[in-house]
Amino acid sequence: MAKKHGDTSEETTGHEWDGIAELNKPLPKWWLYTFYACIIWAIGYWILYPAWPLVSGYTKGYLGYSQRERVAEDLAQAKAAQATYRDKIASSDLKAIEADPQLLSFALAGGAAAFGDNCAPCHGRGAQGAFGYPNLRDDVWLWGGSLDAIHQTIQHGIRSGDPEMRNTQMPAFGKLGMLKPEQVNDVAEYVLSLSGNADDQAAAGRGATIFAANCSPCHGKDGKGNQALGAPNLTDELWLYGGDKATVIETITNSRGGVMPAWTGRLDPATIKELAIYVHSLGGGQ
Amino acid sequence: MAMAEVQERPSAPVGRRNGNRAPMNTAPSVTASDTPAAGGEKTSLYAGRTKVYPKEAHGTFRTIKWIVMAVTLGIYYFVPWIRWDRGPYLPDQAVLIDFPSRRFYFFFLEIWPQEFYYVTGLLVLAALGLFLVTSIAGRVWCGYTCPQTVWTDLMIAVERFWQGDRNARLRLDKHPWAGETLWKKGATHLTWLLIAIATGGAWVFYFADAPTLAHQFLTFQAPTVAYLFVGLFAASTYVLGGIAREQVCIYMCPWPRIQGAMFDRDSLLISYRAWRGEPRGPHKTGQSWDGRGDCVDCRQCVAVCPTGIDIRNGPQLECIQCALCIDACDEIMIKVERPTGLIAYDTVRNLEVGDKAAEPVKIVRPRVILYAAAIAVVSAIMLVALMLRPDLDVSVLHDRNPLYVKLSDGGVRNGFTIKLLNKLYTPRAYKVSVEGLPGAKLDMIGHEDAVVPVPPDNLQSVTVYVTLDKAGVKALTQTATEFEFVITDVASGATLEHDATFQGPLR
User: Fold this and answer.
1) Domain count, chain A
2) pLDDT score recorded for residue A3
């Protein structure tokens, strides 16, 4: 007969430590059977689904289920669901897309995603730019900030090798010996004077003539630049490579010229349009 | 050693004999279930199920339970069919959990996902209500309104309808599934299944327009997930309510374990008044009642118990306090012409003193006051939050990358994402403007004149740029300047202000 506990007269498990006995509170049998059923379920699961890691690969399971394939299917489905909008974007011109609120919000969302994937490495995640890579949120555009100009730049790139690329080259005035170092210094001083930052007015005065002879064909007589040539405005407060004198001297000596790839061929036309609309919406669009 | 002690205590005190369901007319401590392995010390750690055959009770509490069952099942099955007009743009179902558009509709209330704290508040209230009721009158929830109890009660009623009462069912179970047993049991299980399917069916109507879904469901055009959930809930109802029954309360539910902390000596619990009932024993008509208790040991309280326990053993984990033993005992007491209430709602304090000084029950106690106060506070907070809820919600998100953009003329621009939530059931339009930032210019992408149309019961997100020219930037005194966005309802002219900051370069 099983042991009983004195105070409760309940059956004990027979375990006793220092006079403390363990009452037998039996688990219902169906709970035990549920546990066995779970084990059998697990075995069925191993057979039907991917389960065990092997040295290279894993057991695939009888049903051939694969999360990776599922994701690919889902992505294809999502793409198909987007198709109506994307077809519309591909066939509409940019102004028409901007005028249609539904297309616009679709294009902005798609453009933001494409920007993060393709443009952010140089221009920054927030399109805020970096040294040598233009900030796309401000109101300064080397090649034009209209929707069409931005679209053109993204399609064909800058100095990219594309037949229709944006392409000009500033001469390396100092390096090629076109200007002597003191001339470079003078013209740098003049360039700084255009935005009211010159220290040496005499040098700036001497630089004016050098500027008129060498720089004005591209940057303009008044230094306000020329978007057709990608020549920056030298009179404003923003500098792509820095506006201190040493940097300006380095720019004149060695020249500058950023490169941006042509995205035609890498991205489909609808995505490029979405990107143009997105960049145009960042605050600087003209 | 332990053995010897048992022998010395032939009748253990009433109240501590869990799990002992064998007849108790012999020495209560030594019963058949206690002797599995004679001589050997091995005892099984697993217990087979002792099937319970609850007998039908008649009386006050049984009537209350029928009414509660009708009301709760009625609410469950019919609420999705109540209509509630919300205008042409929104669903007209009074109670609807709309997952695709992420809304919870409850009559006049509509809860957006970010307002889910209302549901949290409701859950807090439900928990506190449970604590309050439990500290006053024990497991009222378990005994009357818990879905497990209600559906089990329904399933037992069905079983009784087809197979007869306790004795008939006991007899049926002695026969194999053939002939009478087969059709009676078959009919029972079939009815259970139908009830289970109806239960699962009602559940899905809370998540979609009920008439539409009902039509789709019957024409086999409903979404697969609807069939899946009907199947899932039908299976749980059938298994838990029809088959598992008291096993759910005893082995699965955590509440019996928690409730011990909610009772005190003044809680009204269903109790056997041992001071009146003992010593118990059979009684013949005409015999004297002197020197003996009122309990005639008829075991009717055990026969009606849905969890198969003996209430005379005192408070037990298995007891869901459904009060059916009160009805059963009262019926017998009337027959033997003794006062009713041998089993009744009573407090531990009263049980201890017996009939000598039955004090009035103290319902208002610190614990009860505390729970009631907590309920009042939470309700008040929820009510105030609900009444102050605006029908236009605005959130302003400052661009973080970059914080500001320098412009060629020395000006500075800040970007914001403004979200406008229109909680009304009609389309509205809002004009966004800037206040408190002299010289500020506002541009909005995609909307002319900064007027934003917002669809009914929806959200519109817009990108806004605020620009200060060089003079404006020079006038700033700090890197983060506070200003306000003013949102004007174009139709009504009502305005709402929202704080924002203008970020500028360090100076």
Assistant:
1) 3
2) 63
